[in-house]
Design brief:
By secondary structure, the protein is an alpha/beta fold. The strands form seven sheets. An eight-stranded mixed sheet has the order 9-12-13-11-14-15-10-16, sandwiched between helices. It has a six-stranded parallel sheet with strand order 17-27-26-18-25-24, with helices on both faces. A five-stranded antiparallel sheet has the order 2-1-4-3-5. Helix 4 packs across helix 6. The protein starts with 8 loop residues before the first strand and ends in a 6-residue tail after the last strand. The mean pLDDT is about 90. The structure holds adenosine-5'-diphosphate and zinc ion (2 copies). The site of adenosine-5'-diphosphate (ADP) has 16 residues, from helix 8.
């Protein structure tokens, strides 16, 4: 190391499952590595990408035991002070190692040990003025659709946007190019340039909401915007966004996984004369990193993205919108288990800016926050277009035969709407052919060898697959227990329902929407485009269909199974069922055609279902909140779940017992368990839970700080995999 003077000590967050940072020596004494920038360090035998947390550290270790960092990876910090502060808070709140938390927040391309500043190429398309003779022929549907999108607005459209919206676009784009109607251009970066479009005149209720929002001005003002589906919440966000953009501040717009639809992006793109960064699943790692860099540089005026976008650096941030704030996909379910809505709230508070949480079916936590005036509560109880909310009615299927999951009255309703030339959406939250294979003679049910769960039938019943561990096999010809050949498919999933509907309505075009049917890239987009154009009349799908989509001719929504949500070990199951039913119901009758919704149930008298149907989501939520208060469950109590799993059945239980013994239970903090997880064995590992409950957060978090320090040292810790889940969303 001759000639190089090793500098002062740095504390570096390294992506390993250990709490706290690690100390290294800086490379240079005069020109210090900035806080928030990435460095390459040796950790044990590995080389890892870490992030500098502090400089000028007084290390507990003597200098001669410290290693120098191997390299600096950035010229400017990847995390600014604001974001680093947010992530330190989040790592502390969720009791997750800071190095892993920071790595989760980084775009994948920046987690690698490269100083990659090589700009990615960003393709775009723009319209070329041309005489009408070159227009595509009438039946070239996709070409017309693409041309429409490319011609709206004055700026080129990103190739990635067209891909996300339409799926396979290579051939039609080439055809348009050959006709001289469009040309390819290189966009300057990963951002898209939107164009100012016209805004509709607000309804009275929207105007009221907008005035309330804007009158409160800058500063931390959380608002819950509760508006029925179609009430025009997006328009309300847009007005507030316009104010913020006019003040030269940035807007962060979060949407759930399935809510980040091309329609939403298109709406914002044709509305604001602003540069927009989109973080959706169709973008490559390189593009995502480019959006991140552009946002950090302050070049992106609007960033739209899913959960992890909450960690986008935005130096001019002036507003956060969380659309569909109740959505479960905002909570990360493994690793760094943060909740993006809650992190967004903290971020807004830290930046002292407004935040709007919008939903037709707010989470009970958010309603409670509105009740106790932590959030302002604005309501849009009617649809913006004046269309009526569809009536929701039940079909009692007790002792009714089902054909592929469908009762006769349900089929009759579907037929009526199809005959009228309208669209029908059939919703069942279970993919595959049927949820179980059973022996008619002895009652045997095909189990997964590695999980405490039955196997799901797929491929028309030919294959068995486990939805928990992915194991699969061919369906046996006879019962392994009694030898009978009378094996029957129990219940129905999307595949079976779609099959039954296809044979009943052979002339109607049907599309299935579930993880299996839209696995291929672009498939979901092209299927949705066919629904939007009216070609597809019948939709069968899982919750993938629940939100965001706005189809004018959709007049009937059929929900095949709501009973699962009424009887579940998970205390949030009823809330999720009510949200889902309300959301799917909101898909019907969005325009001038009146809609209706039918639910199949075996429990028409169930009090929660009854309340939902008679009083709507609001009445349901009031009753559910009262029940939660009674049981001191969230939002009236705070939970933390300690999970443990191992190859053997005893270790998780033993570890959790040791863990429980380190907690001082008292009247403000209770330890529930350890108990086996509801599905005890998954993928060959046995799982157990220990739940901490407290009536105050102030008591729970010190206990968790203590836990964080002692758990890894417990004798049983080495025999299990364990994790802490703060504010767990499901207890499964
Ligand atoms: P939400 O997000 O609450 O479900 P949207 O913002 O998507 O509702 O609006 C639903 C529909 O109503 C959209 O087609 C939208 O263009 C339309 N819309 C919204 N506001 C108005 C308005 N003020 N006047 C006319 N149409 C509106
Ligand atoms: Zn049998
Ligand atoms: Zn399994």
């Amino acid at each position: 190391m001759s000639g190089v003077e090793i500098g002062p000590t740095l504390r570096v967050a390294v992506p390993v499952p250990l709490y706290g940072g690690f100390d290294y020596l800086d490379l240079d004494a005069t020109d210090a590595t900035p806080i928030g920038s990435r460095v390459l360090v040796r950790f044990g035998k590995r080389r890892l990408v870490g992030v500098v947390l502090e400089t000028e550290v007084k290390s507990d270790l003597p200098r001669e035991r410290l290693r120098p960092i191997e390299a600096r990876l950035d010229d400017a910090p990847v995390f600014d002070d604001e974001l680093l502060g947010l992530l330190r808070w989040a790592a502390g709140y969720y009791h997750h190692p800071i190095g892993e938390a920071l790595a989760t927040a980084l775009p994948v391309a920046l987690r690698r040990a490269k100083t990659d500043q090589t700009p990615n190429r960003h393709r775009g398309w723009q319209a070329v003025p041309s005489d009408t003779a070159n227009e595509p022929v009438a039946h070239a549907k996709r070409q017309h659709e693409l041309l429409d999108v490319i011609r709206t607005g004055v700026h080129p459209v990103a190739h990635s946007h067209l891909l996300a919206r339409f799926g396979s676009i290579h051939a039609p784009l080439k055809a348009l190019e050959r006709r001289g109607l469009i040309e390819e251009v290189d966009l300057p970066g990963a951002l898209e340039q939107g164009s100012a479009g016209t805004a509709p005149a607000l309804t009275d209720m929207q105007r009221e909401a907008v005035e309330q929002l804007i009158s409160r001005g800058e500063g931390f003002h959380p608002t819950l915007l509760e508006g029925v589906t179609g009430s025009g919440k997006t328009e309300v966000y847009c007005r507030q966004m316009a104010e913020v953009l006019a003040a030269n501040r940035q807007v962060l717009f979060l949407a759930p996984e399935i809510g980040l639809t091309p329609q939403l992006i298109e709406r914002l793109r044709t509305r604001f004369d602003a540069s927009i960064g989109v973080l959706h699943s169709q973008r490559s790692d390189g593009e995502r990193a480019d959006v991140w860099r552009a946002a950090r540089a302050g070049d992106a005026d609007i960033v739209i993205g899913t959960r992890s976008a909450v960690f986008t650096p935005m130096p001019r941030l002036g507003l956060i919108v969380v659309d569909e704030e109740h959505d479960g996909s905002y909570k990360q379910q493994d690793g760094f288990r943060y909740h993006a809505r809650d992190v967004a709230l903290r971020r807004a508070q830290q930046c002292d800016i407004p935040i709007v949480l919008g939903s037709a079916t707010p989470a009970l936590e958010s309603l409670h926050n509105a009740d106790r005036s932590r959030f302002a509560h604005l309501k849009l109880p009617e649809r913006a277009t004046g269309a009526a909310m569809p009536p929701v009615r039940v079909i009692d299927i007790r002792s009714r035969p089902l054909l592929g999951g469908l009762s006769d009255p349900m089929l009759a309703h579907i037929e009526r709407h199809l005959t009228a030339g309208n669209q029908v959406m059939v919703f069942i939250n279970r993919r595959g052919y049927a949820p179980a294979l059973s022996c008619h003679d002895c009652g045997w049910i095909a189990p997964c060898e590695r999980c405490d769960a039955p196997l799901t039938l797929h491929g028309g019943g030919a294959r068995l697959q486990c939805h928990h561990c992915g194991a699969h096999q061919n369906t046996p010809a006879q019962c392994p227990s009694c030898g009978s050949k009378q094996l029957i498919a129990l219940g129905a999933g999307t595949e079976r329902v779609a099959g039954a509907l296809r044979s009943r309505f052979p002339d109607v075009r049907l599309a299935r929407f579930d993880r299996d049917s839209v696995a291929r890239k672009g498939r979901l987009e092209s299927q949705l485009a066919d629904v939007a154009s009216g070609e597809t009349q019948l939709l069968v799908g899982t919750q993938m269909l629940a939100k965001g989509h706005d189809f004018a001719r959709l007049t009937c929504v059929a929900v095949l199974d709501v009973d699962g949500g009424l009887f579940s070990a998970d205390f949030r199951a009823a809330e999720h069922m009510a949200q889902l039913v309300t959301q799917v119901a909101g898909r019907a009758g969005r325009s001038d055609l009146p809609g209706e919704v039918w639910l199949q149930t075996r429990h028409p008298e169930h009090p929660l279902l009854h309340r939902l149907l008679s009083g709507g989501y609001d009445a349901f939520a009031r009753a559910a909140l009262a029940e939660r208060r009674e049981a001191a469950l969230p939002p009236f109590g705070y939970l933390c779940l300690l999970r443990a799993e191992a190859q053997d059945i005893q270790s998780p239980q033993a570890f959790l017992e040791q863990a429980a013994a380190t907690i001082h239970s008292d009247e403000q903090i209770a330890c529930w368990g350890p108990v086996p997880a509801p599905m005890q064995r998954r993928a060959g590992r046995f799982r157990a839970h220990l739940l901490l409950h407290s009536s105050t957060r102030a008591r729970l978090h010190p206990a968790l700080d203590h836990w964080q320090r002692v758990l890894a040292e417990l004798p049983g810790a080495r025999r299990v995999r364990w994790s802490i889940d703060v504010d767990p969303q499901d207890l499964l």
